[in-house]
Input
Amino acid sequence: MFKLRTLILSLLASMVTASCAVISEPIRSEAETPVPFRTLVTEADRFRGRTVILGGYILETSNLESETVIKVLQVPLILGEEPGLRDSSEGRFLIYHQGFLDPEVFSKDRVVTVAGEVIGAGVEEVSGGPIQYLKLKNREIYLWPEYATHRYPYPPWPYPYFWYDYPYHRYRYWYWR
Output
């Protein structure tokens, strides 16, 4: 009984961890173990030709004649290879994709995870200062869905206020205060 329970739990754990990744298994197996982003940028020549998995928030999408260039604000990946919070960004990287990607779909502030081959580094002027960025040739890209956020003007219970009966009918009573 103990062996059966252990077997079932280990199978379940392996299925859960395998289902969390958004990049396909063949590409993940070829990718480098996670390397700090600053190391990738400063030592891009050392990692040239190797596959890395990065993520972040799209800043800009430009379509050229035969390729699309996506500028991304890098953030560290969390569980399931999803990019974390913007505040933890360590820089920027460019994704070069052969073919057309619609800029309305890959629009500003969308979240992406990409597996790409390092092709070098570059420098760009941003707000009067130079920023070094990493260049990747796209192997696989995952665009995270946009989640709807609702701001409720009232509390979730039925009606936000009611009127007292006589003699208090002229005064509103806000019962969440």
User: Anything to note?
Assistant: The CA atoms of residues 109 and 162 lie 41 Å apart. The radius of gyration is 24 Å.
